Amino acid sequence: MKLTFLGTGTSTGVPSIACDCETCISEDPRDKRLRVSILIEHAGQSVLVDTSSDFRQQALRYGLKRLDAVLITHCHADHIFGLDDIRPLNFRYGALGLYANERAWVDIYRIFKYIFEPSHFGGGLPQVIPHVVEPGAPFCLAEDLIVTPLVVIHGRLPVMAYRFNNFAYATDLSEIPEQTLELMRGLDVLVLDCLRIKEHPTHLWLDKALEYIEKIKPRRAYLTHIAHDIKHERDSARLPPDVQWAYDGLIVEG
Ligand SMILES: [Zn+2]
Ligand SMILES: [Zn+2]
Ligand SMILES: [Zn+2]
Questions:
Q1: Fewest Cβ atoms nearer than 10 Å: which of 105, 241, 243, 244?
Q2: How far is the CA of 150 from the centre of ligand 2 (A)?
Q3: Looking at the predicted structure, is the pLDDT value of residue 123 above 90?
């Protein structure tokens, strides 16, 4: 299993426009964060989680050559607004499976109405094959790639996290329900939301994220959806061994 962090930043990205804080002016490439997204490569499959608002730039930067499926966590702008940019992959390979829960599908049909009810001819449209995922109901993308959708709570909104064999990706959440904690047992790698040090109503903050990591006990954990409050090198000292701040371009294999 190979996991590539395509983006690790909060919804504004880091640096944040018009900010000259220590992180936003940092020259450390690990302090430059596009909007969150990961690529999972395993068993001959390339699976993208979220078409972030930076998807085009991410696909070009990391040399993305093909995709077999796209999984959506939820429909906040930072996670979905890059959907239109899957078109060059459609032109080459045809329609792409798009997986999201029922709630997210309501928003996808609304936000991207032009895809599903085209009103003019000419100009390419994204081509997607809709799949509805159910929390706790695993599906196979290949014989050796089992995906389990997991429900986590993002403020008040239930959103999807995904387990890929023994890797799990859980961004944009403030709470992990008990039944999801059960489904997160025995992980080699856990990627978890951690916006900043200070509390936040819809995201995990450092103490809360570390509390969940203690409970879930993955072999390694990576924190993502990071705001400019966090400076990679300075704030790495706050983390226990086997937990680290993710950064754009980081590859985790296992
Ligand atoms: Zn987000
Ligand atoms: Zn800043
Ligand atoms: Zn969100």
A1: 241
A2: 32
A3: no
